[in-house]
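Reposting from the mailing list since nobody answered there.

I have sequence plus structure tokens for a pair of proteins and want to know whether others read the tokens the same way I do. The first protein:
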Amino acid sequence: MKDIKEKTIRGGAARLIGQALKSLLRLGTIIVLARLLDPSDFGIVAMVTVVTGVFEIFATGGLSAAAVQKPEISNAEISTLFWFNIAIGVLLGLLCIAAAPVLSTFYSEPETALVMIAIAPTFVINATAVQHMALLQRHLRYTTLAAIEVESEIVTGIVAIVMALAGFGYWAVVASVITGPLVLTIGAWVTSGWLPGLPRNVRDVYPMLRFGGTVTLNGLVVYVAYNLDKVLLGRYFGPAVLGIYGRAYELINLPTRILNTSIGAVAFSSLARLQREPARLKTYFLKGYSLVVSITLPATIACAVFADDIILVTLGPNWTAAAPVFRLLAPTILVFSIINPLGWLLQSIGMQERSLKIALVLSPLVICSYLVGLPYGPSGVALAFSTMMVLWLVPHICWALHGTNISVWEFFSAAGRVLAAGTVAAIAAAIMQQVAAPLPSPLLRLAIGGTTMLSIYVLVLLFIMKQREFYFDLLREFRRVS
């Protein structure tokens, strides 16, 4: 148990540092490409990736999560899962090629067919690394995973920027979509040291296939619900509008997505090892959740407060139309940062079917919100989406926690202090923003407002909300195990 705790802290720290570097690299790439390419270039690729994203959900078949979640697993079972992933990858690649002309007709954009065919091989590339990545995750080798992901981000950014400078247009973005999985796959094979054997008795992996199928179906339902907005905007408003909406969505969701991906992966692996010890599992989850929301919530609130200056600094003056969408999506991302960690909990304790039921109820509500907002363009969709997610917040938490050993009050206590501190800091930052408004530089205004918000947030959280001991203990523990 002590070994798990130390590996969790080391892994969490490694993932946080790695994801911070990855975020900076991704942000740097976005900033450069936004000044080299047009919104329509991003829109054309987004028209394709929003569809291939559905295929990507099936690419792993949920078998990576199944390999991590199972308490004990043999080499023969992992090898069988590997060949299942290869078969799925080949099938999805062929399906991607076959669907290319259909997609081109749907959008009335011939370029989308070529982009989809170019992306098709990535499904086979990804499939070959699913179980290698799962083994690294299962053994809590998150320093290795972080290094692979950072290297992938560096190579991807270089390739995209060089191609954009050479005048390849949207193909620079396509190249980044292909390069990332290739570098990750090479890194996973080299570092894991595992070579697959021949597939064995399929009956031995039936329970994992069922687990993976449920996880995949859940991912599919959630993906469709959270990405149909992009399909509708691309279909009815064209690639330029979709490019603006897509960049705003990606930018505001970047901190939450990366932090939940990094800490969530560590938390899922560790919680799965503790599923037979509910008391320790509860303690680990609440501490991990407190850490996640203490970073994601204030970051999202800051995005809403400084939306105009953030867009000017990151994307440039040609993207000012993205600022209203960016601000209106903030409540949605705020809700994501609160409820997404519940997915770690439900999957780690084998309650993935409840997660699927929640998704099946939420998805139609979210899709209806898109339809309500669609006549009013991207801002209308963003407003309707955020309104629905805020209304759904409390029912989602109550349903997810029902029957577990974590109470709704304990969950809200972990998030409530952070939300209160973030709100106080946001009010102070908004006042400071008005004071700094006459300054000509958006970067300077952002630096002043951000420094004000961060300082007040830390002071309120640590001293007024009395969380100093928790974070200082966490820091001391990390220093000890390091």
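The second protein, same order (residues first, tokens after):
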Amino acid sequence: MFETKMTEMLGIKYPIQCGTMHGLTTAEVVGPFANAGCLCCLPSAYYETKEELLEEVEKVRDQTDQPFGINVGLFPEMRITVTAEERIDWVIESGVKILETAGRSPEPHRKQISDAGLIHIHKCARVRDAIKAEKVGADIVSVVGTECGGHPSMEEVGFIVLIPAAIDATTIPLIAGGGICDGRSMVAALALGAAGVNIGTRFMATREFPIHQGFKDMLVNFDEKETLLVMKSLRNPSRVLRNPWSTKIVEMEKQGASLDELGPMISGNVSRLGWREGTVEEGMYPGGQVVGRIHDIPSISDLVKRIVDEAAETKERIARL
């Protein structure tokens, strides 16, 4: 029904990816997404050792025989315990054939990736980064608009402008993200020329997602204005859910707070527990503007079916115009 270069290259049923989330897209959700016909990636940075990652890979394989991926972040880290090269080696040893990278240019790692025969998706947030990803040999580029939860660019360009601009500047398949949550927005992305979509915030409000029910209820009750861009003063913006903690970060930045002063607020130590314990008032939690379009908490399979069915209906409605 929706066969694209993304589905063809990755061997998946639908051109839909669940956004990779540190500590959240673990085997308990990667398996159901694979069975639902979508792509989902394990976040390698969540696992401190190769053995832990390989064990998680086996947990996914116990649930499905469908394709899934592993993400290796290339972001500069304050404390490096395992290099990106080592983590890519872990992916190669696991036998998983889909690698997603994000952060800095993947150019230093391209030979390692290519020699292993991995399908390489590079995620970025600017047109020039998409151009560079294609130039150095990435197979697919994933581009997110400023509406997305997590890390958009400093340029703050929205999906409706950024995606066609990136498509016009590149020739490899493009996965579009930022503001996508249902069949209508999926068809909009495909109409712009994307080969698929990346959906993050909407998928957090599903039964299987390993976050506290209090967070899921908050996602249902929030409107589209309940997000903030923090860390702009550090030139590393992140869109997070609005709560007293993130509001304080923005206020501190306006007052010229230094990295040392912001450090305890943005380190992630509080939110690491908060996702699972439901401490919605404390911590910094990535979330996109589509939070205002979440109204229930279905299963992953039911939500994917709903998105695909609505996309098909939207496609037919447009054809009748």
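Reply #1 (J.P.):
I read it the same way you do. The two ends are 20 Å apart (CA to CA).
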